[in-house]
Write a structure and sequence with these properties.
The chain is an alpha/beta fold. It has 23 helices and 14 strands. It folds into 2 domains: 359 residues, no CATH class; 177 residues, IlvD/EDD C-terminal domain-like (Glucose Oxidase, domain 1, 3-Layer(bba) Sandwich). Helix 8 links the parallel strand 3 and strand 4.
Length: 610
């Protein structure tokens, strides 16, 4: 095996060092709950009777007293959203596969699965980020029946998978396998979709043309095919070893997808504490796994949302991850994939070009992944392969030796870029991140007067009124977790993209999010401390000169420091109270959310400060 890259080794070691006490406390907690026999034997007779009452006859007899393990299913199924609709039939596939290996499978609970595509730019988006933590808690309720020997987690999209991971780690004595549904087949090419969106923003096509383009892009069951947070989730589950090898991007409704679901079930039954290959999730996922996730994110140009989710997931396992860890890993990880918004291709093209097996093998070959990190199937060193059907049976073969499309996927010896394109942004305005992998080099440094907006609607109104045809840095503040739940500001991308295409130098600075679809505009996002908590963005005024340097990672304010410090911060006055659509129910989440650089989570794990 290729020796580990020294920077990867150093980042891993410092995560372990700063997490020593919290990780030890975490491991003590989960090891204290390791079952000596089947989990349900801890329950009283009445408890077990309730747990078995809804089962079919064969499962009931086994739950009541015989020797089969029980697998709990946590599902995010709903039939409104394309990514989760395929899960409707998964429980039956799983139950049948479990019986074949003398195991019982039960749906332990469902979790909400909202779609940022539906809520983008709408009031409901203010619930999006905190839905991650609701999902974690809903999963915990399902698993709290404490009668399961392993768990299968069915989820795909933005906040769903991180929430499921948090729960899987808090129930870390259980083996857990993540079961994806796969992406929808390719629709309208992404560059054409972007072109229509920008034309609509300029008023050059009508709403019917926009709707037609959107419907041709998002057209069937399965995950959206661009490389946003949902598909970044699937990549991460694979390099963290929570998937079976090659499970991420097989389309739904295919024989191979069904075979992978059956195999995940039977693997879950094989890795319980009652067998010879016990793989509890909380011991399997360690600092190496988290570093592998960050490496995968950088190598593929993945979603900036994971600068929030990875620290939150890591904290659930007693691990402390910082933005410096992201920046250092990004510096040494080459960009091997170009998938929209980093290119024109979608995840189906990536998968066809060699996909996850090719990517993992390339990263292993240059020492950027911990190949010895454990996985639900062997170690990550075993994940440079792809699944296929051989005479109807599931099998694996080595990933292709060469990429099928060098415009989409490249070897580590010939990357698209020498680094992963994620920058830690730091300076007198705070700390945040910037994804520059999709930004042309000539657009990565912008120095211009600030125009301050307290809502994203105000920026769009200024654009529509023709007041933004100039060089400027848009400061969109009061968009952090404490202010309004940190909604995505992806709807600003077409507006700012139009202005950049007109020849103006534009950039964005915000304490909000831009999502996995962060594109061609230099944007310093997740800036903390946020304006609603008195952060420096609350004192920025129109005309202040700001320099956003996506190359060096500097976020500069060219204003006299004493004059700036003496300004009274702008008061957070939302343009509408957080009332309606259930937003008032999330007030406690807004009050207790941590800063963006520590995951924007209200949870406190094992005494870790937030």
């Amino acid at each position: 095996m290729t020796p580990l890259h020294p920077v990867i080794a150093d980042v891993t070691q410092r995560i372990e060092a700063r997490s020593r006490d919290s990780r030890a406390a975490y491991l003590e907690m989960i090891r204290s709950r390791r079952p000596k026999t089947f989990a349900r034997t801890r329950l009283h007779e009445g408890n077990i009777a309730h747990a078995s009452a809804g089962c079919a006859v064969i499962e009931k007899s086994q739950v009541l007293g015989a020797g089969w393990p029980v697998i709990g299913i946590i599902t995010s199924y709903n039939d409104m959203l394309s990514a989760h609709a395929p899960f409707e039939n998964f429980p039956q596939i799983i139950r049948e596969a479990a019986r074949e290996v003398n195991a019982v499978a039960q749906v332990a609970g469902g979790v909400p699965a909202m779609c940022d595509g539906v809520t983008q730019g709408q009031e409901g988006m203010e619930l999006s980020l905190f839905s991650r933590d609701i999902i974690a808690m809903a999963s915990a309720i399902g698993l709290s029946h404490d009668s399961f020997d392993a768990a299968l987690h069915l989820g795909v999209c933005d906040k769903i998978v991180p929430g499921l991971v948090i729960a899987a780690l808090r129930f870390g004595w259980l083996p857990s396998i993540f079961v994806p549904a796969g992406p929808m087949p390719s629709g309208l090419p992404n560059p054409e979709k972007v072109r229509i969106r920008q034309l609509f923003a300029e008023g050059k096509v009508d709403r019917s043309a926009l709707l037609k383009a959107e419907a041709e892009s998002y057209h069937s069951q399965g995950t959206c095919t661009f490389y946003g947070t949902a598909n970044s989730n699937q990549m991460m589950m694979e390099v963290m070893g929570l998937h079976l090898p090659g499970a991420a991007f097989t389309n739904p409704g295919t024989p191979l997808r069904a075979a992978l679901t059956r195999a995940a079930t039977q693997r879950a039954a094989a890795i319980t504490a009652q067998g010879d290959d016990y793989r509890p999730a909380g011991e399997m996922i360690d600092a190496r796994s988290i570093v592998n996730a960050i490496v995968g994110l950088m190598a593929t140009g993945g979603s900036t949302n994971h600068a929030l989710h990875i620290p939150a997931m890591a904290a659930a396992a007693g691990l402390d991850v910082t933005l410096e860890d992201f920046a250092d890993i990004s510096h040494v990880t080459p960009l091997l994939a170009r998938i929209y918004p980093n290119g024109g291709a979608d995840v189906n093209h990536f998968h066809a070009a060699g996909g996850m097996g090719f990517l993992v093998r390339e990263l292993l070959d240059v020492g950027l992944l911990h190949g010895d990190a454990p996985a639900v199937s062997g170690t990550i060193a075993d994940y440079g392969q792809e699944p296929f059907l051989k005479d109807g049976d599931l099998a694996w073969r080595p990933a292709p030796e060469t990429s099928g499309d060098l415009d989409v996927l490249r070897p580590a010896s010939d990357p698209f870029s020498a680094d992963g394109g994620l920058r830690l942004m730091d300076g007198p305005l705070g700390r945040g991140v910037s994804k520059v992998s999709a930004v042309k080099p000539e657009n990565r440094i912008v120095e211009a007067p600030a125009i301050v907006f307290d809502t994203q609607e105000a920026l769009r109104e200024a654009f529509d009124a023709g007041r933004l045809d100039r060089d400027f840095v848009a400061v969109v503040r009061f968009q952090g977790p404490a202010a309004n739940g940190m909604p995505e500001l992806h709807g600003l991308s077409p507006v700012l993209g139009v202005l950049q295409d007109r020849g103006f130098k534009v950039a964005l600075v915000t304490d909000g999010r831009m999502s996995g679809a962060s594109g061609k505009i230099t944007a310093a996002i997740h800036v903390a401390p946020e304006a609603a908590r008195g952060g420096p963005l609350a004192r920025v005024q129109d005309g202040d000169i700001i320099r956003v340097d996506g190359e060096s990672g500097r976020l500069e304010l060219k204003v006299d420091q004493s004059e700036f410090a003496g300004r009274a911060p702008a008061e957070f006055r939302p343009n509408r109270p957080a009332m309606g659509l259930g937003r008032e129910m999330f007030d406690l989440f807004r009050q207790f959310a941590s800063t963006a650089d520590s995951g924007a989570s209200p949870f406190r794990f094992l005494g870790q400060e937030t």
